[in-house]
Amino acid sequence: MSVTPKKILNEVFGYVEFRGAQAEIVDRVINGGDALVLMPTGGGKSLCYQIPSMIRDGVGIVISPLIALMQDQVDALLQVGVKAAFLNSSLDVNEARKVEQQLRNAELDLLYVAPERLLTPRFLDLLSQSKIALFAIDEAHCVSQWGHDFRLEYRELTILHERFPDIPRIALTATADALTRREIIERLSLADAKQFVSSFDRPNIRYSITQKTDAKKQLLEFLADHRAEAGIVYCLSRKKVEATADWLCGRGYTALPYHAGLDAATRATHQKRFLREEGVVIVATIAFGMGIDKPDVRFVAHLDLPKSVESYYQETGRGGRDGAPADAWLAYGLSDVVSLSQMIENSDAPQERKRLEKQKLDALLGFCETIQCRRHTLLHYFGEHYKNICGNCDNCLNPPKTWDGTVAAQKALSCVFRTGQRFGAVHLIDVLLGKKTERVSQFGHDQLTVFGVGKDQSEGQWRGIFRQLVAMGLLQVDMEGFGGLSLTETSRAVLKGERNITLRQEQDAPKRSRQTRAVDRAGISDTKKNSVEISEIDEPLWQALRAARMAIAKEQGVPPYVIFHDATLLEILRSKPQTTSEMANVSGVGTMKLERYGRAFIKVIADF
Ligand code: ADP
Ligand code: ZN
Predict the structure, then answer these.
(1) Which alpha helices (DSSP H) does 80-144 contain, by range?
(2) SS3 for 525?
(3) DSSP readout, 4-68?
(4) Neighbouring residues of 554: CB distance < 8 A, sequence distance ≥ 6
(5) Cα(2)–Cα(179) distance, rounded to whole angstroms?
(6) pLDDT of residue 479
């Protein structure tokens, strides 16, 4: 073989080494074997079929349900000089004919097609007349009727195996659970495929979860570290999405709302601006996400709790696909737990389903309250054993202090009991603090023995205590939907003094500022640094490099990350190449990009 995979990796894509199992997967497919690849988002799945398509004779057919992404993927390939095209409903008849002609003339290395197009007799005919290198089935979990991305056409893809038995197939997905994996193998007849299962860790994502005190203020503090960067802010309701986006705009951010209540045209414009412009913040309900593969999302902030650990992983996973550092930040408080519990309870779902959702919420709360490494806890939830502590989550960077909260827990539980197990935390705290509010007097709660026994703690601390007691299952949110708290089976042991309770110390003061973050980081290894943070000295050059990238992108009508990913631009900033051979050493700069853009960026550096 004259062109080796490694040579293509180095020269075309500009990367030094294959990552994880990439080399093995590429070899397997080049040699004609089938493969099932389970790799997290941002793991590097694309190269696993792109390189074999370039090496094997014929064209690689990539089946993907995400029409919006095909254009970007093809643009990115054209940038590095790979002959690629796509066929889907966004093309008009003439454009489609042109691509078909390219296929007939064997001019393509890669062709992306939507599944419904692939399955047409016309296209299958065309395929039988063409030389095919491989079939790549992207987002393979779409065959699973249990997932929310189910696509009927994916079930029919076995036709590829039947019609083209000698052509290797590679199925790829970022959904790893055992059930989905079994379904993929069965539904796509991949029993003989070699399986490649990667770790689902996303090392460049920094997880932090904080108690909600003043959500807006906290969000602003968080965003201050991400000025001019693209990110997603998730909220539970449409109303909150609108209000938050408005409010952020008033603070000088380019913030756009996105939810299912907006008309299709507005949604499309906002999505497009998010992809094409830099520094756009999308404020969204979970309606936003599927099919958004913007690689340079630098943060994902949750102003409300996700529904489960799975949702948390998936939503935060939209950050940092390009491998450069990204922040996942969540602020939550007791009232969120209450409203989510009520939402579950008040839905029309059958009891069985409600129970399951409640369990999922409990698991999420456990994750939020953990004092252990977040990554460890998260991966453990997915059945993966993560050996170390990560050094890149709030609990690792800033280990939470704990205290013996047994007495405080007893006071809180006893207050719930004495007041009749029907009041919410606000009233209970008033009683504990000995506040004679109208309600307290009305119910005679100032006559109770628990009245005023909690003056040793602040109101904020009590909120934290109640939240943790709910998360620990020592209190439950009432089922009638008024947010009242009541005791559970397990509360008794605490009240009787048979069980000690360790609580996490609430941090009253917000802990994120640039300074403390820099100090935080002093102790962690280089590779773990959240290094998108640019020093003040480098800032002007960084902005100049970004501006140069944007100018080129605009000229060509592509998103900036198609020119260079953030990770590549950051390396240019750090190494400040002055010659083309120095530029060639930057990861992500292959032959073609060097030729096309090398000089422009060297000039930006030289002018500084
Ligand atoms: P996935 O499809 O698994 O989400 P991609 O294929 O889009 O991931 O790759 C994610 C990022 O990692 C891209 O920016 C890609 O260029 C980069 N990448 C992939 N493989 C390598 C590698 N071997 N070395 C350096 N960067 C890589
Ligand atoms: Zn950690």
Answers:
(1) 93-104, 115-118, 121-128
(2) coil
(3) -HHHHIIIII--SS--TTHHHHHHHHHTT--EEEE--TTS--HHHHHHHHHHSSSEEEEE-S-HH
(4) none
(5) 41
(6) 62
Cα gap 260→323, rounded to integer Å:
30
Map 575-586 to HEC letters. Answer: HCCCCHHHHHCC
Q: Which of 6, 17, 18, 19 to mutate to test the pocket of ligand 1 (most atoms within 8 A of CB)?
A: 19
- Cβ neighbours around 492 below 10 Å, total: 14
**Which residues' Cβ are closer than 6 Å to ligand 1?**
15, 18-19, 22, 39, 41-47, 295, 321-323, 565, 587
Q: Which atom of ligand 1 is nearest to the CA of 45?
A: 3
Residue type (1 letter), 547: A
502-531: burial string, b at 16+ Cβ within 10 Å, e else: ebbebbeeeebeeeebeebbeeeeeebbbe
- Short-list 416, 412, 415, 411, CA closest to 484: 416
pLDDT value at residue 481: 59
Distance CA 472, CA 342 (A): 18
List the structure tokens of 167.
């052509």
- Provide the angle, in degrees to the nearest 10, between the axes of the packed helices 406-418 and 425-433: 110
Helix (H) or strand (E) holding 283: strand 280-284
Both structure tokens of 429: 């705290």
8 A C-beta contact, residue 396 and residue 389: yes
69 close to 153: Cβ distance less than 8 angstroms: no
- Residue 366 and residue 470: Cα distance in Å, rounded? 10
Environment of ion ligand 2 (residues, CB < 5 A):
373, 375, 390, 393, 396
- 12-34 pLDDT tens trace: 999 999 999 999 999 999 999 99
Q: At what angle do helices 459-471 and 406-418 cross, to 10 degrees?
A: 90
Task: Compute CA 225 distance to the chain's CA centroid, rounded to the nearest angstrom.
Answer: 18
Q: Given the CA of residue 138, which atom of ligand 1 is nearest to it?
A: 2
pLDDT at 519: 29
Question: CA-CA distances (angstroms) from residue 294 to 244, 307, 589?
Answer: 22, 23, 20
What pLDDT score was predicted for residue 150?
84
Q: What are phi and psi of 448, to 5 degrees?
A: -80, 155
One-letter amino acid of 264: A
Ligand 2 center from residue 376 Cα (angstroms): 7
DSSP state letter for 141: G
Which pTM does this prediction carry? 0.84
Q: What 8-state DSSP symbol labels residue 317? A: T
Query: Taking the chain (608 residues) in consecutive chunks of 10 residues, what is each chunk's mean pLDDT?
Result: 89 95 98 96 94 97 88 94 95 95 96 95 95 96 81 91 95 84 92 93 95 93 92 95 96 95 93 91 86 87 92 93 93 89 86 85 90 91 84 94 94 96 93 96 95 94 90 81 84 94 73 35 37 77 94 93 93 94 95 95 93
Q: Are 54 and 109 in contact (CB under 8 A)?
A: yes
Instruction: Give φ, ψ of 25 to 5 degrees.
Output: -65, -45
Tokens of 47: 């190269």
* pLDDT reported for residue 185: 94
Q: What is the radius of gyration, based on Cα positions, of the chain?
A: 27
Q: 82 and 50 in contact (C-beta within 8 Å)?
A: yes
What region does 194 belong to: left with phi over 0, alpha with psi -120 to 50, or beta? beta
Give pLDDT, residue 508: 52
pLDDT of 234: 96
- Rounded distance, CA 181 to CA 191, Å? 11
